[in-house]
């Protein structure tokens, strides 16, 4: 059985990785048609005339892939984590057909929840790279994670929001 990870198992500085996921033109177009029907995401000829010069993935497609990789990177959390939002989302480079995406997930902070003593709040910085080690997306998120025991000591928990 896979060991579940609790709040106490996510100290600031811990790093997790996952990927790659290969992005191809068919997936870019399929996502674009359904969720972001702009020419640069759904039509190769129109995309060639765009500022990108070729078909590119929607930023939201990149975000969906990054979310999948974020979940794959983390060890299992009892009951799953509960995200509280996303901050500082950026797409510094487009994702193109043939890109292989991977993520690095770093714990930047961990603190006990003020309103839910049975949980802690873990802040992650998620960076998505292509096969050339270029950053294609970056964001931060805080996730509510169950504590091992509500009375467990937490002297070593620290970080930007501690």
UniProtKB/TrEMBL annotation:
Q: Please give the PANTHER family that the UniProt record associates with this protein.
A: BETA-METHYLMALYL-COA DEHYDRATASE (PTHR43664:SF1), MONOAMINE OXIDASE-RELATED (PTHR43664)
Put simply, this protein is called MaoC family dehydratase
Please name the SUPFAM superfamilies in this protein's record. Thioesterase/thiol ester dehydrase-isomerase
InterPro entries recorded for this chain? HotDog_dom_sf, MaoC-like_dom, MCH/BMMD
Q: Which organism is it from?
A: Rhodovastum atsumiense
Question: Where's the MaoC-like domain?
Answer: 16-120
